[in-house]
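User: Hi! Is it possible to get a structure for several chains at once, not just one? Here's what I have:
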Amino acid sequence: MSSQASPFEDFAGKWRPRIEAELEGILPLAECAPRSLHGAMRYAMFPGGKRLRPVLALMAAQVTGGDLSAALRPAAGLELLHTYSLIHDDLPCMDDDELRRGRATCHIAFDEATALLAGDALLTLAFEAVASGGGQAVSALARAAGSLGMVGGQVADLEAEGDGQDPDLARLESIHDRKTGALITASLEIGAIAGGSSDERGDLVEFGRLLGRAFQITDDCLDETGSAEELGKRPGADLAKDKLTYPALMGLESSREEAERLSRAAADLAPLICRGLEGSGLDLGLRLLQDVASYAITRTR
Amino acid sequence: MSSQASPFEDFAGKWRPRIEAELEGILPLAECAPRSLHGAMRYAMFPGGKRLRPVLALMAAQVTGGDLSAALRPAAGLELLHTYSLIHDDLPCMDDDELRRGRATCHIAFDEATALLAGDALLTLAFEAVASGGGQAVSALARAAGSLGMVGGQVADLEAEGDGQDPDLARLESIHDRKTGALITASLEIGAIAGGSSDERGDLVEFGRLLGRAFQITDDCLDETGSAEELGKRPGADLAKDKLTYPALMGLESSREEAERLSRAAADLAPLICRGLEGSGLDLGLRLLQDVASYAITRTR
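Assistant: Yes, the chains can be modeled jointly so their relative placement is included. Here is the combined structure:
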């Protein structure tokens, strides 16, 4: 029994301790040689943030009638992969950020070489964890995280920083669909695959695409309106870097309207995704999907 | 029919074109967006070097009676992984090298961010390719390449550079067994697994350990005695950086004797590894393993 009003946050709160325990078990101990490397990997992983991607993977297993325990290790792998991408994104040759989740970034707390290699090791470990969900799960992750997915989006994002080209919605969407959307969609897919229920993947992929965009627009808006305390990072960083963002392109108000439209479209897919469920399982599935669509645009950090 | 006297170089020469074709097919086209990223990935991959790790994987399939065609894609994955490690190793925060295989390193030819992300994308693509060999192959690669394997060895190697501690053979072996030996052993394992013949893995792992050390000692010796033209990189680089190497620790002559001892010990394992073969398959298997053990210490680049 929980006092939380949100089914999704309720679900997330229930599963987060098991995700933490799984991550704890996957990562080599800090006392294990090389200590600096394992120390840096753990520094970047703990304490964690929302663990959004693992929670989405477990939710996908839930709403497709899958086995959540079987999805737990692949779900944790998604957080390993996400964390590697943050470490490398923060490096001096990339975004050159010194603050992340309210603390020094990995290359500031350790050094650049250690941060680079800690990211490499987390990426490697992510694939080991996701492999327990089977070959299809590995392929889904590789596609989402590789040069045609997340890494490709990072390159396109760097290229777009003040390159003098006119801002353009299609370009912005293409960057974000790859940079953040692909891994959110893969989280849903991998949860369904690893949970043993891969029938509903087409609808889940479309749900992920809409949800990922709603999350990203909200992120962009929060960067302009949030406080450093809420965000755990410097607000206004995107503006300062002349980054291509939704509010920069269409203004705050239109950005929020677009996020609401995407959120509603995602929620509309809930009955399709849950069509294999019945009884209380169906009720919970529908509420989870509708609620995460709402959470994507109402959260404050 | 080949005129080459070495069964291993004959085998390598026969399979290299298929490895190249496989790599060509796996990598996105250079015209595919983001062009800078795919250009950098291809720049680092082509033209290639010896393709030693894929050749070893295919050889392992051959000497354990496996299906070489089934091992081809995972074998190519090993070269993707090896190439990522070279790109990241060359970065300014690591070895800061400007020359590799006789040309500018990736971050010199492109820029640091592109090189970092090209490495990340190649590592990701490596796992996709190896996944076609099954879950055991993915696990073997992740163990060999991760924080307890190759990446751990890189960190230990960086830490050993002029840290004032007395040089020590056990420490040197521990670094190299992880930094280069683990992936050589994994290449043999993955070839056997992907080829469908995983029975002989214990002997193959020991063979890989001995072979990997023989290769590394020979590398260290060549760094002192080779020419830039032969090596495709600056000779004497290890010495200049006060790196812990075999010749630095025990002298050139003793290093060569140790490499010969390891090579003979590896060759002695050939009958055990090939025990499931018969007829001409057995003959070829024995000759391949004995010859690669000899190749490891007689090559000049």
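Residues 7-298 of chain B form a domain with the Farnesyl Diphosphate Synthase fold (CATH 1.10.600.10). The longest strand of chain B covers residues 99-100.

User: Great, thank you!
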